[in-house]
Inverse folding.
């Protein structure tokens, strides 16, 4: 039974040419220290509104934009909901977009492995290659809900003496559109705070009022969480396990994002099994492929998605007119 042949003959589209979306060669330099130029750029859109964006030069300069894992997520967050992407689990190599209905149908009748085998033959892969089908998430990552909030978020985090990079990253990942649903774990609000974290930093969360809905109050709690927990513990775990620390480096900020998402202890447990020969950027890349304790797929993905969201949002807003750019290298 040739699944690909059947689906193609039925007019089910499986796009072979991914063009610019194909992952480029991975560049994992051991960048441990060095400046990362940042600027606040202001773009004017067609409707005369202004968008503020914190540009991070070393996302491109250090080759994060060429990594297969990041390009995988860029494809997923721009893929329609009715499509899924066949990919190699171990490397995030993109293979074929496949209709989600086809994947679901084949899974129901127990023939999804047949499609996997055909993909292995098509791409000359070992027959035991683990192939996954990841659904498109463009419906969530439309960025309509964040463009009017970034200016406020940047200003608030800076006033709390916390790098606005963190505010921008969390908003682009967690609240890019208009979805306001609580997570399965109970996280809620623009910064996806858990109830106990919100209460710890003075927010009211009860059956009558949930201040996680208040943008300023939620930003205040998130900034304190970064400043008092995520950054100090990322520094501590690096010192504990022999990783050189540079808090201004992008790799360190990505490590901090992992602490925000998965919890400092979960990140600690993952770092203790990574050899300290992986320094700087290489540490982050190794964490993307580390399964230990509660540090599993969702935790691995967080900084990959952060970079993918940054790049896709940057790409979208640069269609507007740049009206101002101010150097911002405080952190």
């Amino acid at each position: 039974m040739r699944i690909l042949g059947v689906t193609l003959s039925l007019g089910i589209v499986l796009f072979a040419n991914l063009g610019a979306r194909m992952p480029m060669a991975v560049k994992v330099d051991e960048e441990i220290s060095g400046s990362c130029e940042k600027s606040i750029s202001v773009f004017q859109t067609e409707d005369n509104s202004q968008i503020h964006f914190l540009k991070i030069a070393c996302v491109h300069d250090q080759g994060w934009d060429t990594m297969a894992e990041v390009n995988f997520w860029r494809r997923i967050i721009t893929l329609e909901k009715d499509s899924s992407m066949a990919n190699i689990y171990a490397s995030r190599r993109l293979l074929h977009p496949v209709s989600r209905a086809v994947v679901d149908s084949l899974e129901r009748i127990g023939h999804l492995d047949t499609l996997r085998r055909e993909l292995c033959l098509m791409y000359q892969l070992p027959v035991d290659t683990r192939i996954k089908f990841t659904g498109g998430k463009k419906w969530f990552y439309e960025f309509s809900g964040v463009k009017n909030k970034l200016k406020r978020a940047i200003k608030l985090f800076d006033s709390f003496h916390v790098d606005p990079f963190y505010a921008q990253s969390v908003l682009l990942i967690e609240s890019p559109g208009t979805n306001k649903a609580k997570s399965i774990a109970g996280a809620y609000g623009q910064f996806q705070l858990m109830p106990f974290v919100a209460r710890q930093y003075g927010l009211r969360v009860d059956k009558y009022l949930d201040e996680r809905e208040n943008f300023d109050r939620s930003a205040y709690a998130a900034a304190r969480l970064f400043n008092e927990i995520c950054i100090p513990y990322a520094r501590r775990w690096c010192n504990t396990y022999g990783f050189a620390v540079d808090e201004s480096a992008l790799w360190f900020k990505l490590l901090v994002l992992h602490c925000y998402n998965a919890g400092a202890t979960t990140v600690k447990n993952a770092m203790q099994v990574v050899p300290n020969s992986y320094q700087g950027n290489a540490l982050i890349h190794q964490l993307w492929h580390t399964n230990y304790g509660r540090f599993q797929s969702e935790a691995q993905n967080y900084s990959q998605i952060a970079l993918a969201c940054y790049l896709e949002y940057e790409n979208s807003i640069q269609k507007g007119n740049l009206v101002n750019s101010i150097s911002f290298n405080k952190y």
Notes: The first helix runs from residue 3 to 9. The longest strand covers residues 38-44. Residues 150-327 form a domain with the Lysozyme fold (CATH 1.10.530). The radius of gyration is 21 Å.
